[in-house]
Design goal:
9 helices, single chain
Amino acid sequence: MKDIIQLILKRPMLFFSIIFIDIVFIFLYGGIVAYFQDKIADQFALMSPSLISLTKQDIFWNAPFLLFTQQNVWQYTKQIIIQSVLLYTCMLLLIVLFQGMTWWLSNNFFKKINFVKFIKKFTILSLILFTLYSILTVVDFFLAVRERVAERLSMPISELSQTVITIIIFTLIIYSLFCFSAQRFVFKKAPWKNLFLLAGLIAFVFLVLQAFLSVLNNISPAISVSAGFVLLFPLIAWARINLIEVFYGMDS
């Protein structure tokens, strides 16, 4: 960890460039997600009256599938699919362009890498991993719909399946970070012990930050938000560089 800090101190402009790109990415990503979520939410609001005539049993057992099988619902489902595909495309482009740049710059702390070759690898990784993430998110959404319907109808339902999906999504996110660090899919040939130790350290640092911000929030929410903004992005950049360092020198 000391070596990483020394690397950062030797090339502060590179480090701050990474932070700047991360900040721009987060704002653009958040804005685009909010825009499309509003569009999708509007379609769901228009769809709701069409479900009133259905029986409670139909809604409970077939809630996700009614979006595709009911003629008066399909017109809204179609718009939801279109908006979701647009959202997926925009998010993937942002990840490739902005996160591809930050991961490439982070690698430059250790060695120079051809940008075009790096982006090609990063794009393939992002396309596969983000598609898996999107599919799991859709499954999680359908399970959430069924759970909310069950709550409204006071019908018992197990939350185990949604919990399992949530764990899988979290695991996929962690695995994706490992893949981006190695510039390839990592399987057996990976320093798993060092990765999990580093992941534990990073998690601990972020938990300390969260606790610190919670204390500040009790004093002044404005100060807490400002401190979080100042501290969070450097920590993200630091964590990314540490992950790359674990794979540095290995054959990719």
